[in-house]
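Quick one:
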Amino acid sequence: MKQPSAITLCEVGLRDGLQNEAVLLPTEEKLSLLRGLIDAGFKVIEVGSFMHPKAVPQMADTDQLFRQIGEVPGVELRALIPNLRGVQRAIDCGCKKVKLNVSASTQHNLKNLNMTPQQSVAGFAPCVEAATAAGVEISGSISMPFASIWEGVTPVETVEGIIEAYLAVGIDEISLSDASGMATPKQVENLCSHVLQKYPTARWWLHFHNTRGMAMANMIAAMDAGMTQFDTSFGGLGGCPFVPGAAGNISTEDVVHLCDESGIETGIDITKVMELSRKLQELLGHGMESYVLRAGRSSDLIAAHQE
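Output:
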């Protein structure tokens, strides 16, 4: 399939990136980064999560961030939630979009929640009811829909069961999240093509980790299949505390650079994102997993050598 002329990126670094960091950034620094991301052109941003502060202390100020930033016209500010309590926190602080998550690894889900993935999703019905009643949009995420360290390749029937469970409780925006970083391009293209055809009313996001250097190839495969919405993280920050050796998310700068060089519109100003990543690098005190941040844009290097 021909690649799209435009794609939409959701910046997840403030949540998926910072939740794995030992350094706890002050709320004002997070707010400055958030405003910078809005200025760079992002129309969808994952601000944080409403997980319990003791479990994820890096996200303890998510409520405060939403209260301080307020509503931004034309920009969707979302947060990850674990349960009904998360919905209530979102309502209280003015968050208008939340996302639930379940693992496609049955063994993983049973170990952590003593439920199958389908049972977990069925239990989300009260969350959907509460969010809908309060005018809060709700979406769902499926972790490890491609493969897991417990079962290997995830059967497509397992993924279908979770998708149908989400649809049954009224959630039709679904993210396929390669949290284990085990997906391969052919597998991605096959699954994406399949769900696009089988579930035409659903809206899809793809979320790739670069654990084995496959994230960019997987993203291109997803685009070839017809997907147009992707999560990225500035500086390539992120990881998964439950997956051995897990690396960060696909780098925002690297994706925007690919798109800029390929004629695919993102609406994102790469120079502003790179400035934010450099600022974050200083705040966290370590390097970033971003090729473009280290090597620079191809167009800049060509221009420099032509002078």
